[in-house]
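Entry 14. Structure prediction run on the chain below.
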Amino acid sequence: MAVDQNAGIPLTATQKLNLALGGLMIAIVLGSTGFILLEGMDPLDALYMTIITLSTVGFGEVKTLHPEGRVFVIFLILFGVALAGFTATVIGQIVLEGQFKEILGRRKMENKIRKFSNHFIIAGFGRVGRQVAMEFQRKKVNFVVIEKDEEAVSLLHRDGFLFIQGEATDDDTLRRAGIELARTLISTLPDEAHNVYLTLTARDMNRNLQIIARADYEEGVKKLMRAGANHVVTPHVLGGIRMAMASLRPNVLDFMSATSLGESDLTIEEMVVPGGCELAGKSLVESNLKKEFGITIIGVKKEDREMVIAPGPETVLEENDILVLIGKMQGLEDLSKKLTT
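Output returned:
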């Protein structure tokens, strides 16, 4: 015996609305047909009588109805009132469900954000901000986007990113994004003045925050650095440099793109030598990183000093040194586990 797979499954609000609209069309067809057959009306008069009867607007009759026609009108009015009530209920349900889902989704998102610490905040979801978010998503790090534009918010919904809708320079919005516990703020706002103001505000709210800001002109770089930014990036300058390298040293650019963007098994990473690590106090040649992990240290930055590029084998590693390494992903992951255990 066949079993109805849909039996017992409640209709969704959209299905109910489609059902109500279908019922309205059937009522119009049946009502017009009834007036034609019972009262001998022409199709236009029959349609007119059906519409004013279903809508209960109270306009006058086209012609005096026979008893059979009046009985028919009574049932048509009762059906129209019931159908109107059902339709209004369904529309109300759709509106309330949409609002409820939106509120519930927003609360779940903000609860998740409240649990974050040592996370990244991206201010602005334009072309630059979206690229940053996509890279963070690829690296599987915790981040929050702050955006006020409705169109950009729709893209955030579509891409499944965690976000706070509001003005990035507003104190309350920054607190909702967890600015006090955040690790880094990336300010990609299109207005340079807003980037400067955001940098000043964020630095005041979190003295230990790493701030990376976008600038369009050299004068903006100076202002952002004075405001408290740790790093300032000028996208058009970087773009120009890449274009020049593509013209003069295309193979070098391909190598840098492959390693920095993770497009090959070989990649560049940075790690910190933690306290109590067995590497502390050893020279590079003694660390044996090349032989054990297949990794080469291409830079060492010691506290309050400039980065040493291509350090010699006699360079001694110390606690809190920042190492810039190049190697295969597996080797870097193995070294990271060793440093953190």
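Confidence is low (pLDDT under 50) at residues 1-7.
Filed with the rest of this week's runs.
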